[in-house]
């Protein structure tokens, strides 16, 4: 089973890129962020024609998340994080598909910091931590996939000194991510590439993509049972190389099939 996350940076403007990627890579589940589309304008018809069922939570001009599942309709289990009913930003969607629960998230960027946007980032992260702990305790197979807007370590960015003041590298952001992993989640991409400089995002400035000056901010975290099934994880860099591409590339994990339970023979 292949599960992917992709910050499309505009689902309508980059629909051709999305459809090409779905056709070529055929993930079983795909989590999308930064739809930048209202619910009514979400291109569900084209996605259905590509063979995917879909759930989405849109927002005009900003944010927005979606979960696509190949050949089935994902079953929604949560829309938005608990803990703050006044938060109307479309940043979290959760569903069941193909035997797993998938949480699709677009964690706030937090810039400029310090300030209200960084405070919102940390508050959102705390609510996410509490919900993630509940999912871990549930015993269900869970993947938490999305754009976390956190560079976990200096090994996950081309120039940590140059970005030191950015919200993505602040000690509070990194500490919250570390607490998330401490719950028992496995960072799949780093697990498969422990010593490699591997990036998922390259901004549009100063030829950062051709020079491979990137950041790793798109993560797929696996519950303990799914971590035991981890087969591979990587980044579809070819998508970032398309004309007028998103500044993110799709990131994915591949899981082996669950082991069948042995049935005891009766004597």
TrEMBL record:
Annotated site, Transition state stabilizer, chain positions: 149
Active-site residues, Swiss-Prot/TrEMBL: 106, 147, 248
GO BP terms, alphabetized: DNA repair
Site residues (Interaction with DNA substrate), renumbered to this chain: 248
Pfam families named among the record's database cross-references: Exo_endo_phos
Claim: Protein biosynthesis is one of the keywords in the record: no
Needed co-factor(s): Mg(2+); Mn(2+)
UniProt binding sites for Mg(2+): 7, 34, 147, 149, 247-248
NCBIfam families: exoDNase_III, xth
The protein's name: Exodeoxyribonuclease III
Lineage: Bacteria, Pseudomonadati, Pseudomonadota, Gammaproteobacteria, Lysobacterales
